[in-house]
């Protein structure tokens, strides 16, 4: 397994295998996993909200990972909170040929009680297959 840090907020992992279960050599099959992050945004108090624009997987890893991370977001997208829980997320998912490829936009509301600042970043976990 090899990991690379690409331009700022994108990381990539490439996985490959050169042997079958019987020990026969085959062409390596590559699978790429990438994380794409949004800007970090802060909501200063209870009931404040913020919105996020489009967050898309890149062409070389175009699909969201089939894994649930956060309520209110499609499979493959996580809401990373700083300062504790207490946020509500709603989003609109983008599809291509029946597969999730990112979000068109998302809205995050601070539900922290007692009122406290919440900081959020969205993270898309993308794969090539």
Topology:
Elements lengths: L1 E4 L4 E6 L15 E7 L3 E3 L5 E4 L2 E2 L6 E2 L12 E6 L4 E10 L2 E12 L7 E10 L2
What keywords describe this structure?
129 residues; mainly beta; seven-stranded antiparallel beta sheet; four-stranded antiparallel beta sheet; 51% strand; disordered N terminus
Describe the fold and architecture:
The chain has 129 residues and is an all-beta fold. It has one domain. It is 0% helix and 51% strand. The protein has strands spanning 2-5, 10-15, 31-37, 41-43, 49-52, 55-56, 63-64, 77-82, 87-96, 99-110, 118-127. Strands 1, 2, 3, 4, 7, 8 and 11 form a seven-stranded antiparallel sheet that branches. Strands 5, 6, 9 and 10 form a four-stranded antiparallel sheet that branches. It starts with a strand and ends with a strand. Mean pLDDT is 83; it is low at 1-20.
The helix fraction, in percent, is under 10%
Secondary structure class reads mainly beta
**How many strands in all?**
11
Compute the gyration radius: what is it? 18 Å
Question: In the residues, how many domains can be counted?
Answer: 1
Short account of what is shown:
The protein is mainly beta.
């Amino acid at each position: 397994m090899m990991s690379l840090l690409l331009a700022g907020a994108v990381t990539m992992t490439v996985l490959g295998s050169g042997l079958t279960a019987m020990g026969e050599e085959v062409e390596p099959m590559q699978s790429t996993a990438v994380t794409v992050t949004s800007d970090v945004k802060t909501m200063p108090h209870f009931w404040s909200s913020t919105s996020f624009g489009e967050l898309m997987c890149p062409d070389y890893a175009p699909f969201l990972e089939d894994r649930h991370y956060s309520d209110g977001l499609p499979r493959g997208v996580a809401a990373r909170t700083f300062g504790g829980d207490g946020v509500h997320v709603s989003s609109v998912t983008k599809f291509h040929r029946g597969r999730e490829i990112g979000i068109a936009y998302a809205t995050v509301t601070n539900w922290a009680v007692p009122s406290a600042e919440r900081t959020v970043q969205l993270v898309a976990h993308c794969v090539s297959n």
